[in-house]
Every structure is written in structure tokens, then in C-alpha cells.
Amino acid sequence: MRVVFFGSPDFAVPTLAALVEAPAITVVGVVTQPDRPRGRGQKVTPGPVKRYADSHGLPVLQPARLADPGVREALAALGADLGIVAAYGKILPAWLLAQPAGGLLNVHASLLPAYRGAAPVHRAIMDGARTTGVTIMRVVLELDAGPMLDRVTVPIDDAITSEALEAVLARAGAALLAQVLDRLRRGPVAEVDQDSAHATYAPKITRSDAAMDWRRPAQALHDQIRGLHPWPHASFTSAGRRVIAHRSRVLDSPTDVAPGTVVAASAHGIDVAAGDGRVVRLLTLQLEGGRPLEAAAFQAGRGLVVGEVCGP
What we know:
The protein is α/β, with parallel strands linked by helices. The chain has eight helices and 15 strands.
């Protein structure tokens, strides 16, 4: 089976690796996003999929737009039987869906039809979901709405961040895809239509998601902190400073002070009142422009003051 792969970030690498390691599959090309500035120095560097492809001698295409001249012809020349997509990051045009004889399959990090869209892992955690998973689906023109070939369920631990959960789902998705492709080589695989009446959406994460509204319940704030790690991070204000929250947990001890009030600060953490009368214990914090610190080290500097009221 000749396969062309579309993917860009870390999430996509285990899937590409599974394709490369499969004995009956030849990866004839990798399509990934162009190299771009990264890190503090904003040096132009390749993304994770490009680095993997280069290290394994795979042909790489990096069009700025799939509509660019020559892209359609270059993809056709690969002679792929099937396309595999894993977090490519661009909308695929209609002509591409029909170009490989077997169409395109997508490794999507949710239990469809839940969390269609760009940020299924982040949104699931931020919503307080306790389970998620990966779906192998056929790519159609409507966003993440194609029929499903298989799914696997993954629990969401209360302490896990979106970064860590994404890594778990990446491995689960790669293993599931390998099973689906093995079945496809032996014959047709049943495709189950999604029930669009139960569809939910996971819009792209932006900086506007970061501000912590202390009037919300403690669990919702904890989920926001987990869901926005490693970017853009949940944050709040204290004495005119932006404070970034990296790790937290919820305390059941009740409090009757105003939401956002710092009720305690110790080596164990900094406790802030939430809107439901419970407390969010901040374990790792960072002043904007500084570095992440455990609560004790953060308080050793110009930390939070017991009794102050933090803002969004």
C-alpha cells in the first residue's frame, strides 16, 4: 500500500512512525507545514514531522497553500493508494479528497462526533470531560464529519495536562490506525456514519482563553489551567502583574470570602478562593517574563499577599 502522509506537530509523529515501520506500507511522500520561526530566538526551524521525515529519508512537500501552482501535480505524481492525515493544520480541498484511489483517513483526537475541530484535547480537558479517545474517520468536506472506521477510548486523569494527554492519544491513535490499515489490506472495513445531532465543536485555542475568572467553580479553573498547558497558559492578575498558572489542584475546604481572594500561602501552595466556595491551590506559578517556580520559591520573591483579591 502506497501512502501519502499529511501532518505537522508532535501529535502526528507516532502515526507517521507507525506507517514507516509497517512492513506492507510504503510512505511515498510527507506533506507538512513550512518551516517557521520558533522559540525565544525565533529561528526558522522545521517542525516535528519534517524532522522525522528528513531523518528517515522520506520525500517532503511543504506548500504554503495546497492551492499553490504545482502542488496538485506533485501529489498526483506520488501515486498514492491512500492518504493519512494527523493534525496537518490546513483545510483539505475537494480535489485532494478524491486523488488517492482509497481517499483520505484522519486520525482525530476525540470520540467523534464530540469535539470536532482544531483543539479537541484542550477543549475536552477544559470542559471537565473524564474520557476522550481517538477516532479513525474518512475525510469529507464537512469538518471532521466523515464516517468512522474505528475508535478507542482513553480516560482523562484529573491531573493530566493537554500536552501529556495529547502524547497519550498520539500513541493510541498510531496503534489504532495500524490495526485499521491491517484490516483494510484484507478487505473492506465497515464505516459508521456519525450522528451529527450530537456533534460538539472544539474551536482553536487563542490567548483570549487564558484569563481566569475567579467567579467560576474551582474545578473549572483547575481544568482551565490543565487544558491551556503548554500554551497559552491560564493566567490572572495580581497587583498589576500577570501571573501564569502552570499546576494546581482543588481543595474541598470551604471558604466564604470573595472569589479571587488569596486565603493562604505556604510551601504547599497558594490557595485562592473560587466562585463555588472551594479553593484552587496553585502549585507552580510564573510572573510574565520570568520562569516557572514552585509555590515556595514563588513566594520567596514578590509573591501573592494573603487577603489580596486577584483579577482575571
